[in-house]
Design goal:
The structure is a single chain. The chain has 129 residues and is an all-alpha fold. The protein has one domain. The protein contains five helices and no strands.
């Protein structure tokens, strides 16, 4: 099973778990998960990236954390945007800019996971959750 497929199935499992939570917790969990997803690349970078790449990962992680926090407090639509931006960030990593410190399949796994979570955020933003 390739990274895209694994990420899609992990996203579906996460979506199911999120949607089983009380409505009042669903948007906050999607926002917190965005912050966590932003921090994963920091963890990878700490294992072997140079200081320039570590700095980029920290900036990205803080940005995704901020989008998650703002999305929780203002609108789930910001979470949709944040998850789609994170998916774009994964594509950037996959396009040969990932360095040896990012596991080979991880950007594609994360890309499909991010798209599923963006769909969950849209579902919640529409008030369907």
């Amino acid at each position: 099973m390739n990274g895209l497929t694994r990420g899609f199935f992990l996203g579906l499992v996460s979506a199911g778990l999120i949607l089983m939570l009380p409505n009042s917790l669903q948007v906050p969990i999607v926002g917190v998960a965005l912050g966590v997803a932003g921090g994963v690349y920091v963890g990878f970078a700490l294992t072997g990236a140079d200081s320039g790449h570590r700095r980029i990962q920290w900036i990205a992680a803080i940005s995704f954390l901020a989008i998650g926090a703002i999305g929780i407090s203002i609108s789930a639509w910001l979470l949709v945007v944040g998850w789609l931006l994170h998916a774009a960030y994964d594509v950037w990593h996959h396009a040969g800019r990932r360095g040896d410190w990012v596991p080979r399949d991880y950007p594609m796994l994360c890309l499909s996971y991010d798209v599923v979570l963006a769909a969950v955020a849209a579902y919640l933003a529409l008030g369907l959750g």
